[in-house]
Write a structure and sequence with these properties.
Elements lengths: L3 E7 L5 H13 L3 E7 L8 H11 L3 H4 L13 E4 L13 E4 L10 H23 L6
Parallel strand pairs: 1-2, 1-3, 3-4
Helix pairs in contact: 1-2, 1-4, 2-4
EC number: 1.20.4.1, 3.1.3.48
Pfam family, one: LMWPc
Protein name: Glutaredoxin arsenate reductase
Length: 137
């Protein structure tokens, strides 16, 4: 059986969605495959996000992740938008939800840490809902 594919989507695919991809791979890879993407790309992942995820979770996002477009990832079963408001991209899927996360770009480490911890909790909740068949991918 193929694992459910979860895409974490935002406009630039440089911060929140990248953090979610990294944490999804670390915390839920036994339940779903994690991808991130956006409608636009950036030359690199947000360096503050890279540093905070490294400090908190010992994950080096720059080793395996890069900014990519929605067309660059497999068709997802589940789409999680990060909270990009009116600019949230549309991606066809079986299930979709918005996490409504504030973008910490340009803010202090405490804000990045807060967003990372929220993403961690939401990843674990998503994993449990999939395991319990509350969400069908």
């Amino acid at each position: 059986m193929n694992k459910i594919k979860v895409a974490f989507v935002c406009v630039h695919n440089s911060c929140r969605s990248q953090m979610a991809e990294a944490l999804g791979k670390k915390l839920a890879s036994n339940v779903f495959e994690s991808y991130s993407a956006g409608t636009e790309t950036r030359p690199y992942i947000n360096l503050d996000a890279v540093r905070i995820i490294q400090q908190l979770y010992d994950i080096n996002m720059e080793e395996t992740q890069f900014s990519k477009r929605i067309s660059d990832i497999p068709t997802p079963d589940i789409v999680i938008t990060m909270g990009c408001n009116v600019n949230c991209p549309y991606v066809p899927c079986k299930y979709r939800e918005d996490w409504g996360l504030e973008d910490p770009t340009g803010k202090n480490d405490a804000e990045f840490t807060k967003v990372a911890r929220i993403i961690e909790r939401k990843i674990l909740d998503l994993k449990n809902r999939i395991i319990n068949h509350e969400i069908k991918g």
